[in-house]
Write a structure and sequence with these properties.
The complex is a heterodimer. Chain A contains 8 helices and 18 strands. Chain B is mainly alpha-helical. Chain B has one domain: MetI-like fold, CATH 1.10.3720.10. In chain B, helix 12 runs antiparallel to helix 13. The chains are: A alpha+beta, B mainly alpha. At the A-B interface, strand 6 and helix 2 of A face helix 8 and helix 9 of B. Bound molecules: adenosine-5'-diphosphate (ADP) and magnesium ion (MG). Magnesium ion (MG) binds next to helix 1 of chain A.
């Protein structure tokens, strides 16, 4: 039993509610990603669960036990920090063993865990280096090894990949995901990068200004965004959202709909439809992103491969009614159309 | 690049160096060499002019009981002041580094002795130490204890000066520790906390080792200060009674300007310079091995 469950969690910094009545649960052995723009309260939630901050309201349960007021060391969690939090004066070996020594794990057990963890993350040959002599990816591995040796069932990660370059990031992402499954960790992973969220998560918790915007599997969030914010936060380029009034369209059977959203990959170049002017063409190899303008409003379309469209051209775009998302004036989703 | 412009580059470089070189040579290197040179001559007088005597001054120094007295005073002074003021500095820095109400006032309070000139500090402590009317004796009087002539007793004069110096120096060293503490990433503490490390364990295994570069810097300064700081002797004791509080630098001053034996003063100065050089080098090489610059 090591699932996490938080109920009505509140954290107040002065007048500002950084975390506002947040509730969700993370199933044992699953990976949940806390996703949201910078400053939305992701780290604060993670730190409340770890016990590094104290909650102003609500409960944190780990494995069924209420840990809201429990000392961080006794919550059975390990944490990977964005900066890795390696001790600069200790070598890799001592960094990995730090926690076990504090907890007075006996020497032979320590050694066994060290060897196992070092092998898992490929650090065997670097045990005597200082953190300053390691690359970013290697430091990240040391931080992971610390989590592994701790044998805590819950792992909290705060933007663990944001200090790495793009290639390494993809590699470490896979590695973290692999470890999570291999060790059957209950993991809560904070990121502002939707690609990390989409590719790793069993469940995504999308946050905005300290509140949950939407929660669910990645595909659910992508295909059924419950708000304009969710629709535009997930997906690159983001979803096109246009006021219905600006496209002279009324959509049958959607009371209260004020805005219409279509993902860029669902826009087709057609002979009839919405008239647009091409502002720019971004060729990316496998696909091309067209930046379009309709009556002063920007749209994006994603087409496969190369296209003969050039900036300045005027053309029409069309979409399948099934690919339309409708939102009301306040940006909330209007019930899905049948048909 | 042509040969002329190459030469011009050198000329230009030397011209830029000249002002600094003149200052350095004129005020540091030349006096050092001149001091050593003078120490090889006897004291001149109206009837007997100064003459070259080689190591003669050094030989008589070895037989000078006051020299040995001030040297051992200096040693005790260093032992008495350095570890305590460094430990106090770390303790105060840890205290004011935390989020306490009014911590900026506390920082200022700790730092105040440092900004006072040594002469002013000595005057304050002269009032503390005065027999009968001084602060310490009055406090003792409240408890019915007898007063004591702290600065007049050869047994208590050096400790009294040591206490005052600690008071003066700890706040200064604290500033360096405080700056170093503020550079420690807070996640280190949090990572340790998640494992259940006690404050003391975290201090011993993480903070203290990471403060080593600061400690080296502070120790070098403290050692140099224990030889350099003598201003308070002018106010408090003049090295007395019976040289019980006399320190090497003050003895040099007395030799040169009270006894007018510049050659012997030069000899003592050369020894002081040698001691300082050896201490600085030793600390640098010994401690360097255990220090973790990033
Ligand atoms: N220790 C703190 N004191 C005051 N405000 C804070 C503190 N930590 C975070 N905040 C504020 O709380 C909000 C949420 O912060 P954080 O959880 O770090 O966001 P995220 O990790 O999503 O970028 C931000 O507006 C931030 O400025
Ligand atoms: Mg954050």
């Amino acid at each position: 039993m090591s699932g996490i469950r938080i109920d009505g969690l509140v954290k107040q910094w002065g007048d500002m509610r950084a975390v506002d009545e947040v509730s969700f649960s993370v199933g044992e052995g699953t990976l949940t990603v806390l996703l949201g723009p910078s400053g939305c309260g992701k780290s604060t939630i993670l730190r409340l669960i770890a016990g590094l901050e104290s909650a102003d309201g609500g409960r944190v349960r780990i494995g069924g036990d209420d840990v809201t007021r429990l000392d961080p060391a006794r919550r059975r969690v390990s944490m990977v920090f964005q900066s890795y939090a390696l001790f600069p004066h200790l070598d890799v070996r001592e960094n990995i063993l730090f926690g076990l020594k504090v907890r007075r794990v006996d020497a032979s057990e320590r050694e066994a865990r060290l060897v196992e963890a070092a092998k898992m993350v490929g650090l065997e040959s670097l045990l005597h280096r200082k953190p300053a002599q390691l690359s970013g990816g290697q430091r990240q591995r040391v931080a992971l090894a610390r989590t592994i040796v701790s044998k805590q069932p819950v792992c909290l990660m705060d933007e663990p990949l944001s200090n790495l370059d793009a290639k390494l990031r993809a590699e470490m992402r896979d590695e973290i995901h692999r470890l999570q499954r291999e060790l059957n960790l209950t993991m809560l992973y904070v990121t502002h990068d939707q690609i990390e969220a989409m590719s790793m998560a069993d469940q995504v918790v999308l946050l905005r200004d300290g509140r949950i915007e939407q929660i669910g599997e990645p595909a659910w969030l992508y295909e059924h965004p419950q708000s304009e914010f969710a629709a535009q936060f997930l997906g690159t380029p983001p979803m096109n959202v246009l006021p219905l009034s600006s496209i002279d369209a009324t959509v049958a059977g959607a009371d209260g709909a004020a805005k219409l959203g279509v993902r860029p990959e669902k826009l087709r170049l057609a002979d009839t439809g919405l008239p647009v002017e091409v502002a720019a063409v971004d060729y990316m190899g496998a696909e091309t992103v067209l930046r379009l303008v309709h009556r002063g409003r920007a749209l994006m379309a994603r087409v496969e491969g190369r296209t003969h469209v050039a900036p300045g051209d005027t053309l029409h775009v069309a979409w399948d009614p099934a690919d339309v998302h409708l939102f009301d004036e306040r940006g909330r989703r209007v019930r899905d159309r049948k048909a | 690049m042509g040969p002329t412009s190459n030469i011009m580059r050198h000329v230009y470089g030397w011209l830029l160096l000249t002002p600094a070189a003149i200052l350095l040579i004129g005020f540091t290197h030349y006096p050092t060499v001149a001091t050593v040179y003078e120490s090889l001559f006897s004291k001149g007088s109206a009837i007997r002019p100064s003459r070259f005597i080689g190591a003669g001054n050094y030989e008589s120094m070895m037989e000078d009981p006051i020299f040995w007295k001030v040297l051992s005073n200096n040693l005790w002074f260093a032992i008495g002041t350095i570890p305590t003021s460094v430990a106090l500095a770390i303790g105060m820095a840890l205290l004011v580094n935390r989020a306490l109400p009014g911590r900026s006032l506390l920082r200022l309070a700790y730092f105040t002795p440092t900004i006072l000139p040594m002469i002013a500090v000595a005057n304050i402590w002269l009032f503390f130490y005065s027999p009968d009317i001084g602060l310490i004796d009055r406090l003792l009087g409240l408890f019915g204890l007898p007063g004591h002539n702290w600065l007049g007793d050869p047994d208590t004069v050096l400790p009294a000066i040591i206490v005052m110096t600690i008071w003066k120096e700890a706040g200064f060293f604290m500033i360096f520790y405080l700056a170093a503490l503020q550079h420690l990433p807070p996640e280190l503490k949090e990572a340790a906390r998640l494992e259940g490390a006690s404050r003391w364990y975290y201090f011993r295994r993480v903070v203290f080792p990471l403060l080593m570069p600061t400690t080296l810097f502070v120790l070098i300064n403290a050692v140099l200060n224990s030889f350099k700081l003598v201003d308070h002797l002018f106010v408090l004791t003049k090295g007395g009674p019976d040289n019980a509080s006399n320190l090497l630098l003050y003895y040099i001053y007395e030799t040169a300007f009270s006894y007018f034996d510049t050659n012997y003063a030069a000899t003592l100065t050369a020894v002081l310079l040698a001691i300082l050089a050896v201490l600085a080098l030793a600390q640098f090489f010994l401690l360097d091995k255990r220090i973790h610059y990033r």
